[in-house]
Amino acid sequence: MSSGGATAELVVSFGEMLIDFVPDVAGVSLAESGGFIKAPGGAPANVAVAITKLGGRSAFIGKVSARPHPFRHWERIDGRISFGDDEFGHMLADILKKNGVEDEGVRFDPNARTALAFVTLKSNGEREFMFYRNPSADMLLTEADLNLSLIKRAKIFHYGSISLISEPCRSAHLAAMRAAKQAGIFLSYDPNVRLPLWPSEEAARTGIKSIWKEPDFIKNEEKLKQALTFANACGAICTTKKGAIPALPTASMAMELVAKAK
Hints:
By secondary structure, the protein is of the alpha/beta class. It has helices at residues 43-53, 87-98, 148-152, 169-182, 201-209, 221-238, 251-261, and strands at residues 10-14, 18-23, 36-41, 57-65, 75-77, 80-82, 102-109, 116-121, 127-132, 156-159, 186-189, 217-218.
């Protein structure tokens, strides 16, 4: 990847941005936690920020809650009470700017709150999630909100599956994918299974697999772990011998080391 963000190829990340609340003590359930630390998150937004931190260039497309009114936290819009003016939306937009993520694809909505996720790592190593949305601002992104010119400038268009759960965001997601594919842009898909957000396990399976054939790259956590473990084994073996070619291991040597390390 280029060390200069301005000259690097653009990666456009599409989807949700939210606030994670993480227990201030590790290894406890959400109910057992005495306090939480807030942190910006959301898988597609995480990717966008990670890219800029590594010297790349990224942009984010999504919707967050509208900027807060200085004197009130609710107001009537078209006869309805709007509760969307929360400061978390403002915080998320600022996080993108502070990390150098291009934000011309970000939209604001006054009719929904920012999504919240309570996340903990249990003692068995498994993560536990509890979400507060329905609707959250990210769910209300529409096709009309899309910045298609931004998408078409990308080298890679990256997205997850959360934006497929409900309308109008699902239609916006599919339209963005079509625009990227028609422009010859690489599609990158993180299935990012979060069952509590789907109506049922079957709905999740159907929704996530509905676009399975479209992307050029699909994140597969198990295969990534295998590839990284194998690569680390090869590197470790190389450090035990002198020279370049003489130090290169065979596949069987690497697999033997992996087996011993388990």
